[in-house]
Design brief:
This protein is of the alpha+beta class and 272 residues long. It has 2 domains: 76 residues, no CATH class; 196 residues, Alpha-Beta Plaits (2-Layer Sandwich). The protein contains 9 helices and 4 strands; from the N terminus they run ααβααααββααβα. It has a 4-stranded antiparallel sheet with strand order 2-3-1-4. A hairpin with a 6-residue loop joins strand 2 and strand 3. Helix 5 crosses helix 7 and helix 7 packs antiparallel against helix 8. The model has no long low-confidence stretch (mean pLDDT 86).
Length: 272
């Protein structure tokens, strides 16, 4: 149709309306720049923590820890410790700036970050989150550690008793060899029973040594949560947000400018 712009007319129209398109683009970029400059700066503080290694998936799974850290109850306690003005709207804004994500290619590391207009607040919030998580998981960690410690103490005591029984049996065997006051048959029977007892005790001793080593290994491997990368006070605001706002403004300005250019061209064609 005559009133439609042909595909071959696109570039001539763009060139003809270039000043209009450029003007709209510049206005949009300036407006976006003004918005980004008047918007409060946002600072990001982050830390990486290692979840605990003990037998409680609630506090040792990164997925579970993420859920705990992003829960309202957890964040409310953190928020109340770093702010005096704790209104609902302030808490909602604070919560929106909190992130907790498992570190890629790791099942034990999780990164927590807080975005806030105040540098010190973000740093304090990250530190409080790490501290609070360690605090609430401490009871579970200490409980398992005590169980293993008690089991190890019992195993060591049992090993000590077995060693005493082995020494006593050895002495009895030596005494049997030196003593000749009974008949040969009775002596041989007692000696055989003592050897069987010695063999049984040696087997028990070997098993108890393995048990001790296993418990010592478990005690060595269990660890409480710890910070592997401490949070630092951010020195500058997040620059990517300003650049992103300007880029979006420029893109919208370019689209609007081109749209208006073709709209005017179509209107002028219809008017002729």
């Amino acid at each position: 149709m005559d009133d439609e712009i042909d595909l071959l007319d696109i570039f001539p129209v763009l060139w003809k309306r270039r000043l209009q398109i450029i003007s709209v683009f510049i206005v949009a970029v300036l407006a976006a720049g003004t918005i980004s400059l008047t918007t409060p700066s946002v600072y990001r503080a982050s830390s990486i923590i290692a979840v605990g290694s003990f037998d409680d998936p609630i506090y040792t799974s990164t997925a579970s820890v993420k859920g705990i850290m992003l829960s309202d109850e957890f964040l409310q306690e953190v928020f109340e410790q770093i702010r005096t003005n704790t209104t609902g709207s302030n808490f909602a804004a604070f919560k929106n700036g909190v992130k907790a994500e498992p570190v890629k290619d790791s099942d034990k590391l999780i990164e927590i970050s807080v975005e806030t207009p105040k540098k010190q607040e973000g740093l304090k919030a990250v530190e409080k989150m790490a501290w609070l998580y360690a605090k609430i998981s401490e009871e579970s960690y200490n409980k398992e550690k005590k169980i293993l410690t008690d089991q190890l103490a019992a195993a060591q005591e049992r090993l000590y008793i077995i060693d005493m029984e082995i020494n006593q049996t050895r002495e009895a065997l030596q005494h049997m060899q030196d003593y000749s006051g009974t008949s040969a048959i009775q002596a041989e029977m007692r000696f055989s029973r003592a050897l069987d007892l010695m063999s049984s005790l040696e087997t028990q001793r070997s098993a108890m040594i393995d048990r001790n080593l296993d418990l010592q290994k478990q005690l060595f491997l269990i660890t409480p949560p710890r910070v592997v990368q401490p949070a630092r006070e951010p020195s500058s605001p997040m620059g990517s947000r300003t650049i992103m706002i300007i880029a979006i403004g420029g893109m919208l300005g370019l689209i609007i400018g081109i749209f208006v250019a073709f709209l005017r061209e179509g209107i002028e064609k219809q008017a002729k």
